[in-house]
Amino acid sequence: MSDLPLMELKDIHKSFGNVDALKGVSISINAGECHCLLGDNGAGKSTFIKIMSGVHQPTSGQININGKETEINNPRDAIDAGIATVYQDLALIPLMSVSRNFWLGRELTKKVGPITVMDFEKCNSILMTEMDKIGIQLRDPTQSIGTLSGGERQTVAIARAVFFGAKILILDEPTSALGVYQTSNVLKTIERVREKGVAVVFISHNVSHALAVGDKFTVLSRGETLGTAKSGEIDFQELQAMMSGHKELSELKK
Amino acid sequence: MSTIEKKISLIRSKFSVALLRPDLGAIVGVVLVFLFFFLVARDTGMFSLEGSMNWGIVSSQFIIIAVGACLLMIAGEFDLSVGSMIGFAGIIIAVTSVVWGWPVWLSIISAFVVSMAIGALIGYITVKTNLPSFIVSLAFLYILRGMTIFIAIISTKKTIIGGVTEVAENDWLAPFFGGKIFTGAFDWLAEQGIIQTFVAGTKAGQPVVSGIPMMMVWAIGLIIFAHLLLTKTRFGNWIYAAGGDAQAARHIGVPVNRVKILMFVFTAFCATVFATTQVIEFGSASADRGILKEFEAIISVVIGGALLTGGYGSVIGAALGAVIFGVVQQGLFFIGVESSLFRVFLGVLLLLAVILNTHVRKLITGAK
Ligand SMILES: Nc1ncnc2c1ncn2[C@@H]1O[C@H](COP(=O)(O)OP(=O)(O)OP(=O)(O)O)[C@@H](O)[C@H]1O
Ligand SMILES: [Mg+2]
After folding, report:
1. Cβ(B30)–Cβ(B55) under 8 Å?
2. DSSP annotation of B367
3. Do A117 and B233 touch (CB under 8 A)?
4. A22 C-alpha to center of ligand 1: Å?
């Protein structure tokens, strides 16, 4: 692991009209590290990661990728820079088959005479192998995503992002709607992805989910950073107290 | 998940997959409709070659506009201006060729260009304003119909412009919309006595069916094109995605706006094909042509199993929906049922189809 962070966001501000959603947030993200963003409702977590993934542009602030100042103007820019985002509710398209979802936007094609068509055979066989790796048993690649459980959908979306070479994987509350069993599966997937050297940005309300996989924890409150702590430096009670009481990390350490 | 739960979900999903062919309902519908009319209308000549040609042509007309509406609906949008577009394109062809004296091929190409540009405009306004296409295209339903009547009145003081047959006589493009193909084969079949011939009148000796009308050729061509585009190409994948969840598709990097606009253009193309075949066939254009066609198209598509909310459907289903439409309309005529009952039937069928589709949607998305 090099010392240079994969991605740095410095003093990010974002206003929607007169709502200041972010008031100077800075974090840095390293390969093979799971960075948890914690915070209460409305803290600005989603806004922050939407800036990382090109959905919003910051009002002010600097973004460096591999040490170079970069502008992310749209989701395509983010994808090209290796930043993939899995949104809780719109990770995939429920009416479409698992295979069509997995390959969406990156469809493998072949030529049949003069026309270019999707190479379903290849798409499906690669998909089955990939699903096997992450422990999802598909009956067949054409079954719709809607027939999978919420946890399985998250897992498929994560596998998809990693398969297509994501260096930074952003997960917005992937576990918030899941039961215990499915949550543990998603957390396992995060673990596996991180071991591959992918940087994971994991957003959660749930401190115990974060502690289970996180290497670093940044707590946001009303658009501001309360501080960043490393795994082992902070425990459940302290994190919980920061999230709810808006106490500064330094205050807790006193 | 317990093993019992797993088993239940497996059985449920197996059952779902069988039900989840979007066109299943339409396939069953077509079989039932044919069965019904075969039983009650066999003696009316409905299923003779001539009779079949009759409902075949009517079905083809429905198919041509249903195919466009189908891809557009799967992409998550509607176009209520299709009927007005049909009237509009027809009048453009007639005014430019008959009144202005343009060669017919140029008139036809102009109609396609103008209609498709308007389709693009409807799409552009829809994606840029984020308004429901229902409203945007409703506006164009009125705008285009009004423009059509206006253009017809100021250029000829009439709403029906005739004389296209004469100016189209030696045109190279018009036969692609008006003529028939395989006429030689049909003549030969008639000589062999396989096809009946007219026994009296000006056409005596000619086969009762002299070839496959271009209308049918277009219908079949459009089905094949749209079906392959939707199910086999990557662009088809984007059509499903744009209608299934536009926001999710955008995040993944699918050019959703471009897909939607192109589908509006395609719908306008289909409307213009319909308009052109009618103008060439009748030799005239009428400013009120195409009224209610947008709904007939949408109904065919819904009977064909597509979801009104987008993201799911089938071109084959829409075509079968159009065939149900055509066979029932003409079948009722053959058995001499009051034709107004056709609308009653259609309303009931639409309601049943929508209820069935909504249920199917729940099965696919796993929603309770
Ligand atoms: N598009 C927008 N327009 C206006 N205000 C917005 C917009 N998006 C977010 N906000 C506001 O910014 C603030 C931060 O919202 P954000 O969604 O980032 O919070 P969050 O930390 O993700 O909360 P949650 O845990 O509920 O998901 C809120 O006050 C919200 O109302
Ligand atoms: Mg949020």
Report:
1. no
2. -
3. yes
4. 9
Report residue A229's pLDDT band, with 50, 70 and 90 as the boundaries. Answer: confident
Q: How many CB atoms are located within 10 Å of the residue A57 CB?
A: 14
Phi, psi (degrees; rounded to nearest 5) at A47: -60, -45
Q: Transcribe B148-189 into DSSP letters.
A: HHHHHHHHHSSSEE--HHHHTTT-SSTHHHH-EE-HHHHHHH
Determine phi and psi for A112, rounding to 5 degrees: -120, 105
Q: Is A214 in the pocket of ligand 1 (CB under 6 A)?
A: no
> How far is it, in rounded angstroms, from Cα B301 to Cα A167?
43
Cβ–Cβ below 8 Å for A104 and B241: yes
Q: Which two tokens stand for residue B170?
A: 């030696």
- CA torsion sign for B276, B281, B283, B284 is negative
CB contact under 8 A, A94 and B234: no
Query: What pLDDT shows up at residue A1?
Result: 46
Q: What domains sit in chain B, N to C, each tagged with a CATH number?
A: 24-365 (1.10.3470)
Q: What number is the ipTM of this complex? A: 0.83
Cα four-point dihedral sign B347, B352, B358, B364: negative
In the DSSP assignment, the letter for residue A108 is -
Q: Which residues pair with A228 in a beta bridge?
A: A218
Residue A20 CB contacts under 8 Å (≥ 6 apart), including other chains: A13, A14, A223
Contact B364 A90 (CB under 8 A): no
Q: Residues of B with CB below 8 A from A55's CB?
A: 251
Pocket test for ligand 1, best of A12, A36, A45 (most atoms within 8 A of CB): A45
User: How many angstroms does the Cα of residue A39 sit away from the middle of ligand 2?
Assistant: 9
Structurally, what CATH architecture does the domain formed by A7-95+167-253 represent?
Answer: 3-Layer(aba) Sandwich (3.40)
pLDDT of residue B8 exceeding 80, the answer is: no
Q: Is the CB of A194 under 6 A from ligand 1?
A: no
Residue with tokens 């990770």: A91
A146 secondary structure, DSSP code: G
* Torsion sign (Cα): B255, B258, B262, B264: positive
- When the pLDDT of each residue in chain A is averaged and rounded to a whole number, the result is 87
Q: Give A35's strand partners.
A: A201, A216
By C-alpha distance, which of B73, B37, B69 is closest to B55?
B37
Which of B232, B238, B251, B257 is the best mutation test for A, with the most CBs of A within 10 A? Answer: B251
